Amino acid sequence: MADYNAPQKDWYSILGACPTDDIQVLKQKYQKLVLMFHPDKQKPDVSEEEAEQHLQRFIDIDQAWKILSKEESRNDYNLQLRACELKQSWPVDAHITLDDMNWDYETECYSYTCRCGGEFILEKDEIQEVETIVCCDSCSLSIEVKKGT
Protein backbone atom coordinates (compact mmCIF):
# COMPACT_ATOMS: atom_id res chain seq x y z
CA MET A 1 0.00 0.00 0.00
CA ALA A 2 1.23 3.53 -0.75
CA ASP A 3 2.41 5.88 1.99
CA TYR A 4 -0.46 8.35 2.27
CA ASN A 5 1.24 10.53 4.88
CA ALA A 6 3.94 11.69 2.46
CA PRO A 7 3.37 14.71 0.23
CA GLN A 8 1.91 13.51 -3.03
CA LYS A 9 0.12 14.43 -6.21
CA ASP A 10 -3.58 15.08 -6.59
CA TRP A 11 -4.63 11.75 -8.09
CA TYR A 12 -8.13 12.98 -8.93
CA SER A 13 -6.90 15.95 -10.98
CA ILE A 14 -4.44 13.69 -12.82
CA LEU A 15 -7.44 11.69 -14.06
CA GLY A 16 -9.52 14.84 -14.59
CA ALA A 17 -11.94 13.53 -11.97
CA CYS A 18 -13.36 14.55 -8.62
CA PRO A 19 -13.87 12.61 -5.37
CA THR A 20 -17.60 12.23 -6.02
CA ASP A 21 -17.08 10.40 -9.33
CA ASP A 22 -18.05 6.73 -9.20
CA ILE A 23 -15.72 3.92 -10.25
CA GLN A 24 -17.18 3.71 -13.78
CA VAL A 25 -16.50 7.42 -14.44
CA LEU A 26 -12.97 7.04 -13.08
CA LYS A 27 -12.40 4.00 -15.29
CA GLN A 28 -13.59 5.83 -18.42
CA LYS A 29 -11.32 8.79 -17.70
CA TYR A 30 -8.40 6.48 -16.96
CA GLN A 31 -8.88 4.49 -20.19
CA LYS A 32 -9.10 7.64 -22.30
CA LEU A 33 -5.94 9.13 -20.77
CA VAL A 34 -3.92 5.92 -20.79
CA LEU A 35 -4.55 5.54 -24.52
CA MET A 36 -3.58 9.15 -25.11
CA PHE A 37 -0.29 8.99 -23.18
CA HIS A 38 0.77 5.35 -23.61
CA PRO A 39 4.40 5.22 -24.82
CA ASP A 40 3.47 2.87 -27.68
CA LYS A 41 0.83 5.33 -28.95
CA GLN A 42 3.18 8.33 -29.30
CA LYS A 43 3.96 9.79 -32.70
CA PRO A 44 7.52 9.16 -33.89
CA ASP A 45 8.19 12.86 -34.56
CA VAL A 46 7.76 14.07 -30.93
CA SER A 47 10.80 15.57 -29.24
CA GLU A 48 12.68 13.64 -26.58
CA GLU A 49 11.55 16.13 -23.94
CA GLU A 50 7.90 15.79 -24.95
CA ALA A 51 8.21 11.98 -25.01
CA GLU A 52 9.64 12.09 -21.47
CA GLN A 53 6.76 14.32 -20.31
CA HIS A 54 4.23 11.93 -21.84
CA LEU A 55 5.91 8.97 -20.18
CA GLN A 56 5.79 10.70 -16.78
CA ARG A 57 2.14 11.59 -17.36
CA PHE A 58 1.42 7.95 -18.26
CA ILE A 59 3.13 6.79 -15.04
CA ASP A 60 1.09 9.30 -12.99
CA ILE A 61 -2.15 8.22 -14.66
CA ASP A 62 -1.37 4.57 -13.92
CA GLN A 63 -0.53 5.35 -10.28
CA ALA A 64 -3.71 7.41 -9.89
CA TRP A 65 -5.77 4.48 -11.20
CA LYS A 66 -4.01 2.01 -8.89
CA ILE A 67 -4.93 4.15 -5.87
CA LEU A 68 -8.42 5.27 -6.87
CA SER A 69 -9.68 1.99 -8.38
CA LYS A 70 -9.43 0.05 -5.11
CA GLU A 71 -12.02 0.95 -2.47
CA GLU A 72 -9.67 0.65 0.51
CA SER A 73 -6.84 2.73 -0.96
CA ARG A 74 -9.32 5.29 -2.33
CA ASN A 75 -10.93 5.65 1.12
CA ASP A 76 -7.50 6.05 2.72
CA TYR A 77 -6.57 8.68 0.14
CA ASN A 78 -9.87 10.53 0.65
CA LEU A 79 -9.27 10.58 4.41
CA GLN A 80 -5.82 12.02 3.87
CA LEU A 81 -7.24 14.70 1.55
CA ARG A 82 -9.83 15.58 4.16
CA ALA A 83 -7.19 15.83 6.89
CA CYS A 84 -5.13 18.14 4.67
CA GLU A 85 -8.19 20.29 4.01
CA LEU A 86 -8.90 20.54 7.72
CA LYS A 87 -5.32 21.52 8.46
CA GLN A 88 -5.45 24.23 5.82
CA SER A 89 -8.98 25.43 6.57
CA TRP A 90 -8.96 25.84 10.31
CA PRO A 91 -6.33 26.79 12.78
CA VAL A 92 -5.55 24.01 15.20
CA ASP A 93 -6.53 25.06 18.72
CA ALA A 94 -4.37 22.49 20.53
CA HIS A 95 -1.84 19.75 19.89
CA ILE A 96 -2.48 16.75 22.13
CA THR A 97 -1.75 13.04 22.31
CA LEU A 98 -4.16 10.14 22.75
CA ASP A 99 -2.93 9.96 26.36
CA ASP A 100 -4.47 13.42 26.94
CA MET A 101 -7.89 12.20 25.81
CA ASN A 102 -10.44 10.24 27.84
CA TRP A 103 -11.27 6.70 26.69
CA ASP A 104 -14.93 5.71 26.97
CA TYR A 105 -15.19 1.91 27.15
CA GLU A 106 -18.93 1.96 26.47
CA THR A 107 -18.77 3.92 23.17
CA GLU A 108 -15.19 2.87 22.39
CA CYS A 109 -14.26 6.47 21.60
CA TYR A 110 -11.73 8.99 22.81
CA SER A 111 -13.04 12.38 23.92
CA TYR A 112 -11.53 15.71 24.91
CA THR A 113 -13.44 18.71 26.25
CA CYS A 114 -13.37 21.84 24.12
CA ARG A 115 -13.13 25.28 25.70
CA CYS A 116 -16.68 25.98 24.40
CA GLY A 117 -18.00 23.06 26.47
CA GLY A 118 -18.39 20.77 23.45
CA GLU A 119 -16.44 17.60 22.80
CA PHE A 120 -13.75 16.48 20.42
CA ILE A 121 -14.68 12.85 19.72
CA LEU A 122 -12.31 10.42 18.05
CA GLU A 123 -13.44 6.91 17.22
CA LYS A 124 -10.87 4.13 17.39
CA ASP A 125 -10.97 3.47 13.61
CA GLU A 126 -10.41 7.16 12.79
CA ILE A 127 -6.95 7.26 14.35
CA GLN A 128 -4.28 7.91 11.72
CA GLU A 129 -0.76 6.54 11.98
CA VAL A 130 0.86 9.84 12.93
CA GLU A 131 -1.72 12.56 13.55
CA THR A 132 -5.45 13.14 13.23
CA ILE A 133 -7.39 16.40 13.05
CA VAL A 134 -10.60 16.35 15.08
CA CYS A 135 -13.33 19.01 15.03
CA CYS A 136 -15.41 20.03 18.02
CA ASP A 137 -19.02 18.83 17.93
CA SER A 138 -20.26 22.28 19.02
CA CYS A 139 -17.99 24.94 17.50
CA SER A 140 -15.47 25.43 14.69
CA LEU A 141 -12.33 24.66 16.72
CA SER A 142 -10.15 21.70 15.87
CA ILE A 143 -7.32 19.85 17.58
CA GLU A 144 -4.46 17.77 16.29
CA VAL A 145 -4.15 14.41 18.02
CA LYS A 146 -0.85 12.56 17.80
CA LYS A 147 -0.79 8.82 18.37
CA GLY A 148 2.42 8.64 20.40
CA THR A 149 3.32 10.43 23.59
What would you note in describing this structure?
The protein is an alpha+beta fold. The chain contains four helices and six strands; from the N terminus they run ααααββββββ. The protein has helices at 11-15, 23-37, 48-68, 71-89, and strands spanning 92-97, 102-104, 109-113, 119-123, 131-135, 142-146. The chain is elongated, with a radius of gyration of 20 Å. The relative contact order is 0.13.
Share of residues in helices: 40-55%
- What is the number of strand segments? 6
- Rg estimate, integer Å: 20 Å
Taking all residues together, what is the mean pLDDT?
86
| Molecular shape | elongated
> Structural class of the helix and strand makeup?
alpha+beta
Order of helices and strands: HHHHEEEEEE
The end-to-end distance, rounded to whole angstroms, is 26 Å
Q: Which sequence of strands runs across the widest sheet?
A: 1-6-5
Give the biggest beta sheet.
3 strands, mixed
Number of helices: 4
Low-pLDDT ranges:
1-7
Q: Kindly estimate the percentage of residues that lie in beta strands according to DSSP.
A: 15-25%
